[in-house]
Amino acid sequence: MSDMALLRIGILAAGLLLIAAIFLFGRPKKKVQGRRVEGAEGTNGQRREPVLGEGETPADGATPVVGEDGVTQPELGLPEVEAGAASDLGKRTTQDFDKIVSLFVAARAGEQLRGEDIVVAAEKTGLVFGHMNVFHRLVEGHPERGPIFSMASIMKPGSFDMANIREMETPAIAFFLTLPAPLTALDAWEKMLPTVQRMGELLDGVVLDDSRNALGRQRIAHIRDELRAYDRQHQAPPLTKAPRW
Q: H/E element holding 129?
């Protein structure tokens, strides 16, 4: 079985995770969360880019990526976390949705994405930690409108346990745009795509589409066309003038 086939098996659980996350978004959940209060620093005091560490076999039935080498990257300084109250930051304003657009950042063969690296990369790309213990991109100045898109781990239950983030590893993270969103579908996509691409760079991962294939220009163009059509179908009907008698 090829590495890509194993990767697809490992990410297959993400589809169910996305749907489950949407249905759970409206339910209150009292759980200790955390937040990053300091960034990772290298030995010379300078901020370092996230790097991947040595992987472990994940639990809950997810299949890791099988690699060709066992090279371990330099370890990133661990971010500090502290417990915080449950947050509604990033909670959807409504449970009604009719479309989900998803992308993935997957670890390269033989590697895993490390929890503390994901946190640092999320901070750098403007994501905030909030509702359901996952990360969200919010409308600037209007967090009450809910998430433009969200990011979760493909490992069950999908959330990020900040108290144990140093031990967390996952073969991939999932980004999901749930429509309708607080922006038009196309505008929301234009916010999500560069964020996912940048996360892929920071984590030295591979960006995949919703079919678990490498995201290419043709697929990006196709998604844009789909979202333009979605916006046309969901735009408010034009106002008609009352007939003059």
A: strand 128-129
Distance CA 18, CA 136 (A): 14
Contacts of 54 (CB under 8 A, 6+ apart): 70, 72, 111, 112
**pLDDT (tens digit, 9 = 90+) per residue, 124-170?**
999 999 999 999 999 999 999 999 999 999 999 999 999 999 999 99
**Band of the pLDDT at 239, cuts 50, 70, 90?**
low
Alpha carbons 68 and 191: distance in angstroms, whole number: 34
Q: Answer yes or no: are the C-beta atoms of 159 and 133 closer than 8 Å.
A: yes
Tokens of 49: 């880019």
Phi/psi at 132 (5° precision): 65, 15
* pLDDT (tens digit per residue) in 19-77: 444 434 444 343 434 444 344 344 444 444 443 333 333 333 333 333 333 332 223 23
Nearest to 163 by CA among 33, 21, 22: 33
> Of 11, 12, 35, 25, which Cα lies nearest the Cα of 170?
11
pLDDT tens for 191-221 read 999 999 999 999 999 999 999 999 999 999 9
- Hey, how many other C-beta atoms are within 10 angstroms of the C-beta on 230? 19
Can you tell me the distance from the alpha carbon of 207 to that of 75, in angstroms, rounded to the nearest whole number? 23
Strand partners, 47: 41
SS3 category, 117: helix
SS3 of residue 8 by DSSP: helix
